[in-house]
Amino acid sequence: MSTSDPTAPPTTFDLESRVDSADTTLHSQRCAVIALGSNMGNRLDTLQGAVDALADTPGLRIKAVSAVYETAAVGGPDEQPNYYNAVVVLRTSLPPQDLLERGNAIEDAFGRVRTVHWGPRTLDVDILTYEGVTSDDPQLLLPHPRSHERAFVLAPWLDAQPEAELPGRGQVAELLAALGGPDSQGVRRREDIRLTLPE
Prior knowledge:
alpha+beta; two-stranded antiparallel sheet; 5 helices; 25% helix; 25% strand; globular
């Protein structure tokens, strides 16, 4: 990976070297859905930076980005700032573990510190689903085990991918309706701000 990439971590993880000719082979690409969240610092800039970093990742093509949704923090310490949440739908030739490592590297680049469970954070990058893959690895549970319970995940996911289905749970639209709809659990769509795909 080029050292000019601001999200390149100071480790031996070299994403570009892992992306071979499979990147140009359509049948090798899978659909994946990623949730983004931030409740520290400039939340919108952070989410946009995460989208930009994902778009700049070899072997990954973003297909859709949701609107931004705001919600109170769920769990963790009291009196946390509200979250901005969004969902990105992509196609990738990266294996799930490599996609996870890329997400972790992006979190680290934006100052993510893992000290308090469910505490405030500059950036969350969570893989919700990866086409055709289930995993019970504690480091990478697929599909994400709590996404069906969280309107702040389902509302932006439905916005980015109206036909979305959560494997083993059903249609995202139906799951969200069962929670009370897109405005349930204090979730609010922000019409005054948005994320953009890099040109």
